[in-house]
Amino acid sequence: MLQSGIQESNGGVARYYRADLQRNHAVSIEITGYAASAFAYLHALTGEQAYLAAAVRSARFLARTAWDPGGRILPFELDPPAYSYFFDCGIVVRGLLAVWRAARDGEFLEAAVRIGESMALHFAPVNGEIHPILQLPGKTPALRDALRWSTCPGCYQLKSAMAWWDLAEATREFRFREPYERALESALATYGGFLPGQPDPLKVMDRLHPFLYFLEGLLPRAADKRCATAICGGIPRAAAFLREIAPRFVRSDVYAQLLRIRLLADRAGIAPLDRDAAEYEAGQAARFQAVSADPRVHGGFYFGRKGEDWLPYVNPVSTAFCLQALAMWGHGGGTAFSLSDLV
After folding, report:
1. Which helix (H) or strand (E) holds 96?
2. What is the pLDDT of residue 188?
3. Scanning 4, 256, 276, 305, which has the fewest C-beta atoms within 10 Å of its C-beta?
4. Which residues are within 8 A (CB) of 248 and not within 5 positions of it... i.e. 6 or more apart?
5. Which domains does the chain have, with CATH numbers?
6. Do 246 and 204 touch, CB atoms closer than 8 A?
7. Is 199 left (phi over 0), alpha (psi -120 to 50) or beta?
8. Per DSSP, what are the bridge partners of residue 140?
9. Sheet architecture: strand order including 304-306
10. According to the model, what pLDDT value does residue 129 have?
11. At a CB cut-off of 8 Å and minimum separation 6, what does 150 contact?
């Protein structure tokens, strides 16, 4: 995360490094939000100031460069700023709040509030579903493709809606709690049909990733019986699909997310830890970490594997998820872990 060049000098973070082409993909606003959270978590874990400095660089990029003050919205990409994604906005808010808690710089809290207000205003009408994508500059809902989960509303949006929960905790303003509660009710009403959702097993593997986002998004309300039931049922369901499909195609982030939700559900007292399954998932996630003489690759985690072939994407989000899951596992399930630390 620090030495590979995946973070550029302006604080922006590339979507991934293409090991086969030996170059970074373009800077991604969403991935920079994840990286900000990951750097803040690494600083909390190690105390190393280099991680805090990297977190601050990313937060400044998000607060100063990524945000469109004229349109009062966060674009998906800067060149060109053609769309805005609800999910990306929530990840950026959570990243900014993570750095604010670490650095205590009010600029990052103010930026998080602006984006959280924009999410509620533009994406989440009071009596309607959350729009996943808006076209810019008009902020009109983009066309949806039923075969692409990221273009459609769904239970996975609850992970991003956690940004409102976090803002309510940070500001003590109830106005941010209400949109999270609306998103929660919608997710609980619709999640049952999200899996498998596709006849192609390889695409089901891709859907496990957002389904686990949904389970993560339930954690602020884990004491609610409905949420606890969804988590308790969702963990073995996701695990069964993962083991069935993995010989053909598997993603490192799915192993990491499944391990994290197991550990957090156990800590919350709602789903006793299956230690054998957790140990297996930790071992599988660790296999994706690269060992290389090339500093652009070394230590990073590959995105996925098809059969026995590694896909050539060294991915900062896969790296963040895996390092956090493995750190939690290595520290006895994350006993000192707060939900605000969740990348």
Report:
1. helix 86-103
2. 97
3. 276
4. 201, 202, 306, 307
5. 13-341 (1.50.10.10)
6. no
7. alpha
8. 135
9. 249-251, 304-306, 309-310
10. 85
11. 85, 87, 132, 210
What is the dihedral sign for C-alpha 25, 30, 36, 42?
A: negative
- What is the DSSP secondary-structure string of 40-63? HHHHHHH--HHHHHHHHHHHHIII
What's the whole-model pTM score? Answer: 0.96
User: 130 near 122, Cβ under 8 Å?
Assistant: no
CA angle 119, 142, 76 (to 5 degrees): 55
d(CA 154, CA 160): 11
The residue count for the chain = 343
| pLDDT given at position 333 | 53
Backbone dihedral angles phi then psi of residue 169, each to the nearest 5 degrees: -65, -40
Judge whether 161 and 180 are in contact, CB under 8 Å.
yes
Beta strands 140-141 and 133-135: pairing type? antiparallel
Only one residue has tokens 């999410």, namely: 119
Find, among 257, 286, 261, 285, the residue nearest to 274 by Cα.
261
Q: Which residues of the chain have pLDDT under 70?
A: 126-128, 332-336
Find the helix or strand (DSSP H, E) in which 170 lies: helix 157-171
Tell me if 30 sits within 8 A of 89, measured CB to CB.
no
Q: What is the C-alpha to C-alpha distance for residues 72 and 180, in angstroms, rounded to an integer?
A: 21
Distance between CA atoms of residues 284 and 277, nearest Å? 11
Q: Which amino acid is at 232?
A: C
How far is Cα 216 from Cα 220, in angstroms, rounded to an integer?
9
Burial 110-122 (b: 16+ CB within 10 A, else e): ebbbbbbebbbeb
